[in-house]
Amino acid sequence: AAEDGHRAWLRYAPVPDASRYRYLPSSIIALNSTKSSPVYTAGQELQQGIKGILGKQLLVNTNGTRKTDTLAIIVGTADTYTKIYGDFDEAGDLEEDGFYLSTEGRNVLIIGSNERGALYGAFEYLSRLGQANFEEDSYVDNPHAPIRWVNQWDNLDGSIERGYAGPSIFFRNGFVADNVTRVAEYARLLASIRINGVIVNNVNANSSLLSTRNIEGLGRLADAMRPYGIQLGISLLFSSPRDLGGLPTFDPLEPTVDAWWANITEKLYAHVPDMVGYLVKANSEGQPGPLTYNRTLADGANMFARALESHGGVVMFRAFVYDNHINPANWTADRANAAVDFFKDLDGKFDENVVVQIKYGPIDFQVREPASPLFSTLRNTSTAIELQVTQEYLGHQDHLVYLAPLWKEILDFDMKADNRPSKVKDIISGGRFRRPLGGSAGVVNVGTNTTWLGSHLAMSNLYAYGKLTWDPSLSSEGILQDWIRLTFGFDKTVLDTITSMSLASWPAYENYTGNLGVQTLTDILYTHFGPNPASQDNNGWGQWTRADHTSIGMDRTVKNGTRNAGQYSPAIAQQFENIETTPDNLLLWFHHVSYTHILKSGKTVIQHFYDAHYAGASAAQSLLTQWSSLRGKIDTERFEDVLFKQTYQAGHALVWRDSITQFYCNLSGIPDEAGRVGNH
Ligand code: GCU
């Protein structure tokens, strides 16, 4: 059972009705014999998977022959396949990383547009078998966007910023880890959800990553991930030319600085020939950057772009640039304005291999935020969305919060740029503004914990992240149920129960931690864990609620507030400018109102706080009850692990409920109509 946690959704557990599969091929033909090739990996994976799922040991042959007497699973790239077997009709429909899967012809065909695509097709076939889906059909599956990366916030000392699953699998004691077993296993997991790039170190980067020893180490990490089609990238510290290189400056327009980066980049490519690129956090939260020298953020990004260009690398330049010392006494100051303020005049000034990486909301991974207005501001710049799998503000994997519904709300949000359909998902794909690049970055932060994320149920978020990067039109529930079957098997009660728990989890968490768009009322100064509504205000971080004795909420209107609503396209701006058209769940994000303001639901704001916190905490009790009902239907080890987490969540939700309701009762002096809060 410990094994099950480790293998996650790749358990390849036997399916109950394997005999229904009358079409079991008798061999595997993988059209590449090079061990670092994803096609070779696909052959091995198919062998292992079919043995587990269907109980049959197949041989893998790496030499395709024109004639096969027996049924085979043929896996390879379109090019190799065509050379040996001739054309196939769907070849023209394949896009980069896409694949064609056919289970209805004489052979099972798994044909990738490239090697990585072939591996994705193999995982797809195994996922179908693993769910006892023996349908016979043929289809092409192409990605929604080219950039499907994860970010790890791993430090060289082995710690992980906002990581909740133990120390790093990549680094130890200042250096790249010697043992890369877990790195290869992680790459396998990521390839199975069609991720193609991993930034291995923290955005708050350290220049000693670029030491000779560590560059060699990065080469080993890349080698370990290459058989899975995963390319390595790294985060850079902007001041490295000074800090590591000993130059007097790190001014991006200084030729010696440029040359320094070109040289380091050469060295990196000598060890990591397929390095995917760089991730840069500059001029944010105390990090150095181009603004230090009065250069623009585009000057900074383009410096890396030049170094990478001839190698085919991409710069992910983070839009998370803001001043963390803004003045709370200033009614119109607003951290949420920062990204658009910093980037709007730079649109079109970034090199073609720069992608601006934008957190989904304007602040910072809160339980509820509107989509960042930057998505529709940048029209001549490639963009990617940054999501968080690691539950920084969302309960540190000690609370079950299934995040696909949150992500989908953002991805499906229509920014109405120029009054034309402009869903966030179609902007980041490059489609809406016709950009060559785009996609997603997910902050994952797996650690050495055998469960990867420190929680069995949290793995649904990693699975969903990958699935949505590939196809954001998938439903949250559909993704979830695939994951449940692959992770826990076929019991109908297990499927229904985990589905119901997961789909209730985000609304529950929002209810007991911060409703009406007021943000997650957690401690923002240190832990980002547990209730601390007082910590939001009266400091320079700008995650303000503006709560006083009579009223609460950020006035982000143009007419009377921070003008943030005006950063959206006119149709959206108008919606958020007006209280009447702002949805209740974003009311306090955009408006400052009295506690007795009446919501669309007919309740007052303060009564909604009380009711929602009680409802949320009660939903958390129900998660525990529901999980408890699965005793005996799930192996003891995983059952007990999750039981422990759900017990914790149920208790912690009560702490949340009581702290928040009491805090606002004290502040407003308005008692709860139901008599639950106050009178202490
Ligand atoms: C949050 C988080 C930091 C992180 C930062 C970032 O503020 O708490 O740990 O460094 O985001 O995304 O850069």
UniProtKB/TrEMBL annotation:
The active site is at 285 (proton donor), 364 (proton acceptor), 392 (proton acceptor). Its EC number is 3.2.1.139. It is an enzyme of class 3 (hydrolase). Residues 134-452 form the Glycosyl hydrolase family 67 catalytic domain. Keywords: Carbohydrate metabolism, Glycosidase, Hydrolase, Polysaccharide degradation, Secreted, Signal, Xylan degradation. The keyword Magnesium does not apply. The keyword Secreted applies. It is found in: Secreted. GO terms for molecular function: alpha-glucuronidase activity. Residues 454-676 form the Glycosyl hydrolase family 67 C-terminal domain. Residues 8-125 form the Alpha glucuronidase N-terminal domain. GO terms for biological process: xylan catabolic process. Its main location: secreted. It catalyses: an alpha-D-glucuronoside + H2O = D-glucuronate + an alcohol. It comes from the Eukaryota. GO terms for cellular component: extracellular region. Alpha-glucuronidase involved in the hydrolysis of xylan, a major structural heterogeneous polysaccharide found in plant biomass representing the second most abundant polysaccharide in the biosphere, after cellulose. Releases 4-O-methylglucuronic acid from xylan. Belongs to the glycosyl hydrolase 67 family. This is Alpha-glucuronidase. The chain holds residues 17 to 696 of 842 of the full protein.
